[in-house]
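HUMAN:
Just now I want nothing more than another pair of eyes on a protein record. I would be glad if you read both lines and explained how they fit together. I have put the entry right below:
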Amino acid sequence: MPTVVMPRTVTEHQDTLRRARALQPKLVKLRRQIHAHPELSFKERDTARLITNTLFELGYEVRLGVGGTGVIGEIGEGRTIVVRADMDALPINEANDCAYASRNEGVMHACGHDVHVTCALGAAMLIAETAPKNGRVRFLFQPAEETVNEDGKSGAVLVMESGATHEAEAVIALHVDPRLPVGKIAVREGAVLAACDSIDITVRGVGSHGAFPELGVDAVVLASNVVQSLQTVVSRRKSALSPVVLTIGGIKSNTFRPNILAEEVELTGTLRYFDAYLSEVLPAEVRKACSVAEALGGSHQLRYNQDNPALVNDPQLTNLIRFVGKQILGQANVVEGTREMGAEDFSFYSKVLPSCFFFLGSAIKGSPRKLHTPTFDIDEAAQPIGAAMLAEAALHYLTPEATY
């Protein structure tokens, strides 16, 4: 006779948070070890080793080398939900004066991926204590969220190509939010984070002495006109109801001398947007804008890369996260998230599977911090909450006839 699995109760949800808080010493130790030894994208070998050892000790089936340095740990059988955590750090020198500050010069966990790994491992600990009887939880520790390889592929694409989402029905993940108080989560359905395109433009003119500009074609002037023309892509070439950010983040000439007309200028930038139709409109309009270089007597070369699509949360899975959050934290502590122009390669999962990406309050009271800065840090009291949320969301999803 098949085992009857009842929907999880409020008491069970809250008991998971209690058990997660009991794990806090382990979570702090894990996070600080990872934080002190950060590794850049595609190089997360020591982090992967720590994750692997932890999962083996918990009795998980473990698969190594997923998409390069990624790790998968599975428990249970049947319909599958994936819990994803990213592992890589950033090329930033840490400025924090603390015992667990980065020991790898020029590398820092400035985006909270050390926390994401720790919360996922905490969830793995909680689920190992009461293994799911009606499905499979697959913990996916993903490399290289912050950058792409020579083929333009980030870690999400590579692990998916390695079968990380094979037979999966849903994917969930969290991200620390240093603006949100500890004890709260933020979540919203639909578009959450923007699609991200990158552009690299080389503008070429004809070099000359600065005293005789008529003998050359000034690439600095050409590039300036290209920059101005690019702004019309946002202001005149798409609907005002479809937000787009176009930023030229760098410009440099090949000479940089006061008395030389530059022969070549390089520009680099990014475009951010939500509406899918813009993925066809924007590349075409950027190419048109760059053609002003030819109109002024020069030439240009454009590299346009569509790094990732917009991150879109599935409505039903978002309702599940809201439901579990209210059970664990109380209704007042589950707040509506906002759309932001930041980007995340979790978007590749959301494009092919029902997904939900939510934000975990991690603010240090009285000491505001910002992501991707040398002083980034979190209030570690957030970690048991993250672990409990991931564990309960996965278990609740796998419970037959669960309401949310």
Q: What stands out?
A: The domain at 197-308 is CATH 3.30.70.360 (Alpha-Beta Plaits). The chain has two domains: 10-194+310-398, 197-308. The two ends are 28 Å apart (CA to CA).
